[in-house]
Design goal:
422 residues, alpha/beta, Aspartate Aminotransferase, domain 1, Aspartate Aminotransferase, domain 2, 2 domains, eight-stranded mixed β-sheet, three-stranded antiparallel β-sheet, 13 helices, binds pyridoxal-5'-phosphate
Length: 422
């Protein structure tokens, strides 16, 4: 098969006419399909339904005797801290269990750093703070740093993680205060940082003493295919270099139990945890301990969480397979697109022919398929190559996904041909 760039103008025009006809027939169907956000659908959420009835009305006492219905306990009940300690791979004392969203914990951390400083340091806002952003990355991370007025610097992400030569160079600037990291099944690239990348990050010696890796391990247990990826424990590696203050870890059960009613948690060094507690003590008397108790009763321990995650994997696998099948069937070898085949997480990242991502999204939208906007995976919403698109296969039923993906491929090819014909 010849790639699209090898085709003559006549061949391109003929192929274009063929694609347009198919596109028009899909458009006439009045589709309404959504592949925009990485959220589970109702059926997948129901996997965790029993959690709502696993605690009786009179079971509200935590293991240390705390009445979970009442005020108190800033950092979370001990059994919940222990469970998240197992998930993070750190002692329970290094963990703070929060409310339903890890994103709130990340926002609060950076917002406090920005106006008040980290561990007694100067407010970042007074130092024109900059942040390293592996790209493509998570749009909501970038939204936080943009909202706080922190300048974002793109760092290319490869199969092994962020470009570490560049990171090591950039952190020599004392204004560079941190870096976003989704180290496992990255959103959207689906890659997991290699051992070497984790070791190099753990050993970083940034010019800024208050530099922090925002280690968002949202997908740490979210395997879909075997053999699944593995990730080195950054905290242990950083400790080996006496560098444990550099890392703030975050995760949640949003995609383990309920996206709207899970439990978020953070972990860090004793110094960092004490720093966060000094702010939290003003912010809240304590998060929702009844929900923490419900989660611990339901899962028991890390092994219980892992067993539960297999049910999610069984649900998600056919959806990821449907995406892979359509992309390979319709776009492979055409020189139009490259994509990943992740072993876990929630996304498939597609790099289209440069200059065609926006047009592909527009064509899809006109035919009733909503995708995350082109550029969303880059800081400030600007993908310099106009190439990367994020596909979120979890929400639609498989049959709908198959239709949406067929149309995706048609639109990507139409946009590529139009680009070449211009
Ligand atoms: C990398 C990443 N971090 C965090 C979140 C949101 O987490 P939470 O629901 O705990 O706020 C998401 C959701 O898509 C995500 O992809």
């Amino acid at each position: 098969m010849s790639t699209i760039t090898e085709m003559t103008k006549t061949e391109l025009l003929a192929r274009r006419a063929e694609l347009q006809e198919t596109y028009d027939s899909y458009k006439a169907r009045g589709l309404k399909l959504d592949m925009s956000r990485g959220k589970p659908g109702a059926e997948q959420i129901s996997i965790s339904a029993d959690m709502l009835t696993c605690v009786a009305a009179d079971e509200y006492i935590a293991e240390d005797g705390t009445d979970t219905r009442n005020y108190g306990i800033l950092c979370g009940i001990p059994e919940a801290r222990r469970l998240f300690g197992e998930i993070f791979g750190v002692p329970a004392d290094n963990v703070i269990v929060g409310g339903n969203a890890s994103l709130t914990l990340m926002y609060d951390y950076l917002s406090t750093a920005n106006w008040r400083g980290v561990c007694g340091g100067q407010p970042w806002a007074s130092q024109k703070a900059k942040f390293l952003c592996p790209v493509p990355g998570y749009d909501r991370h970038f939204a936080i740093t943009q909202f706080l007025g922190i300048e974002m610097i793109n760092v290319p992400l490869s199969e092994t993680g962020p470009d570490m030569d560049l990171v090591e160079e950039l952190v020599k600037d004392p204004a560079v205060k941190g870096m976003w990291c989704v180290p496992m099944y990255a959103n959207p690239a689906g890659i997991t940082y290699s051992d070497e990348t984790v070791r190099r990050l753990a050993a970083l010696k940034p010019a800024a003493e208050d530099f922090r890796l925002m280690w968002d391990n949202a997908y740490c247990l979210h395997h879909i295919r075997e053999p699944h990826d593995t990730l080195l424990n950054i905290y242990t590696e950083a400790e080996k270099c006496g560098n444990e203050d550099i890392v703030m870890m975050f995760t949640s059960t949003s995609k383990i139990s309920f996206p709207g009613a899970g439990v978020g948690a953070m972990a860090g060094s004793p110094k960092n945890i004490a720093d966060v507690k000094s702010r939290m003590t003003v912010q809240t008397i304590g998060y929702d301990k009844m929900n923490m108790l419900r989660h611990v009763k339901y899962f028991g321990d890390l092994a219980g969480v892992k067993a539960h995650m297999e049910k999610h994997a069984a649900f998600l696998r056919p959806r990821f397979d449907a995406v892979e099948t359509a992309l390979s069937r319709d776009l492979a070898g055409k020189g139009i697109a490259e994509w990943n085949r992740p072993n876990g997480g929630y996304f498939v990242s597609v790099n289209l022919m440069p200059g065609t991502a926006k047009e592909t999204v527009r064509l899809l939208k006109e035919a009733g398929v909503v995708l995350t906007g082109a550029g969303a995976t880059y800081p400030y919403g600007v993908d310099p190559a106009d190439s990367n698109l994020r596909i979120a296969p979890s929400y639609p039923p498989v049959e709908e996904l198959e239709v949406a993906m067929t149309l995706f491929c048609i639109c990507a090819e139409l946009a590529a041909i139009d680009k070449l014909l211009k």
